[in-house]
């Protein structure tokens, strides 16, 4: 198969979807790999390294899309890329369709095959979302601590405090991968941490494994309203696979927070679990509403591209090789983990949560996979 790796063009997105090591593995299986010039520079990989691994370097993004049967990316295509995508072309990347209708409709019109990292499932986990959730969870505290500083219009409080001065209070909404990593990081920095979830079993687990300065609490609107009154940093870490995140912190709750409180919404690329959060960029990461600092960067891991690229490609490469070896239909028929990754196929929405998000017609993915079985 012909594999294309375009350079990411989203604001400050420095990750790359395939490393030179990944190119070597693809070549072992007989595939051709075309990489856009300078695609890996942001992550520390030169064109020469890709060439040494066996890739062909192409000068433009148009060249990569034109030649490739499968495009491997990191972030969803942006508007400039829509017209470059070909009918029947396989796109393997993060899409987060449920949070952005124009992207969904553009991919429907392209009649491409869109297989989303974030909805590939392994048991009850999302193996291609986990590594970036780990990075984003840890970064949420790193960035939150920064924006609590007075020059950034935060409360002017040191996350871990000092002897004789209490540490900051951190509230983490959601006890999944992001929330667990955020709580772990905040605890390590010495903060007073509370983590909320709706699963009592999950809270029991977290209570067992977390440090002594992490408390668990059942998530409810009442409890959230009580906790936000004294929280210094609030991290939104709630995810519903493939669907829009629910609003746990609503507009009216900002009035109950202290001036300079910092909100970090890690779920912003799935619509956000903080109602007032809208996607921002690394160039302009924050905005202020009611004296509350909002940090809502939609590609947080893009700020640490070396770590993020290696973490992501460690997870995605085996699936990418399987798709290249077998083609998407056979791979999805034979690997039940890949099947739920299909979101849009040849003009049809085949992932129910995406169809429901925009009231679009839904077609069961089995309709397409059955064709492969019958063939």
TrEMBL record:
Mg(2+) binds at residue 322. The active site is at residues 96, 269. Its EC number is 1.4.1.1. GO terms for cellular component: plasma membrane. Substrate binds at residues 15, 75. PROSITE patterns: ALADH_PNT_2. The lineage of its organism: Bacteria, Pseudomonadati, Bacteroidota, Cytophagia, Cytophagales. It holds the Pfam family AlaDh_PNT_N. GO terms for biological process: L-alanine catabolic process. This is Alanine dehydrogenase. One of its GO terms (molecular function) is nucleotide binding. Binds 1 Mg(2+) ion per subunit. Keywords: Magnesium, Metal-binding, NAD, Nucleotide-binding, Oxidoreductase.
């Amino acid at each position: 198969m012909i594999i294309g790796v375009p350079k990411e063009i989203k604001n400050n997105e420095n990750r790359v979807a395939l490393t030179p090591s990944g190119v070597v593995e693809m070549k072992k299986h007989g595939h051709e790999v075309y990489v856009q010039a300078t695609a890996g520079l942001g992550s520390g990989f030169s064109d020469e390294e890709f060439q040494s691994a066996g890739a062909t370097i192409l000068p433009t993004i148009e060249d990569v899309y034109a030649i490739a049967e499968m495009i491997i990316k990191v972030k969803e295509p942006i508007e400039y890329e829509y017209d470059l995508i070909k009918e029947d072309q396989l796109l393997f990347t993060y899409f987060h369709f449920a949070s952005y209708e124009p992207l969904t409709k553009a991919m429907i019109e392209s009649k491409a095959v869109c297989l989303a990292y974030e909805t590939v499932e392994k048991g009850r986990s999302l193996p291609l979302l986990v590594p970036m959730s780990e990075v984003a969870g840890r970064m949420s505290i790193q960035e939150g601590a920064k924006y609590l500083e007075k020059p950034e219009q935060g409360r002017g409080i040191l996350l871990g405090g000092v002897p004789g001065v209490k540490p900051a209070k951190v509230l983490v909404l959601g006890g999944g991968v992001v929330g667990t990593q955020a709580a772990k990081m905040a605890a390590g920095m010495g903060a007073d941490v509370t983590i909320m979830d709706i699963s009592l079993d999950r809270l029991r687990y977290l209570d067992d494994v977390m440090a002594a300065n992490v408390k668990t609490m059942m998530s409810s609107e009442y409890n959230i309203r009580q906790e936000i009154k004294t929280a210094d940093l609030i991290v939104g870490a709630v995810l519903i696979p493939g669907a829009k995140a629910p609003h746990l912190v609503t507009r009216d709750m900002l009035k109950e927070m202290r001036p300079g409180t910092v909100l970090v919404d890690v779920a912003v690329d799935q619509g956000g679990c903080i109602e007032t959060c809208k996607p921002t960029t690394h160039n302009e990461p924050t905005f202020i509403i009611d004296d509350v600092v909002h940090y809502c960067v939609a590609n947080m891991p893009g700020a640490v591209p070396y770590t993020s690229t290696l973490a992501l490609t460690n997870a995605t490469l085996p699936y990418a090789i399987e798709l290249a070896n077998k083609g998407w239909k056979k791979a999805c028929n034979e690997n039940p983990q890949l099947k739920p990754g299909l979101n849009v196929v040849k003009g049809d929405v085949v992932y129910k949560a995406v169809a429901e998000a925009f009231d679009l017609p839904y077609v069961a993915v089995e309709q397409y996979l059955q064709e492969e079985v019958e063939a």
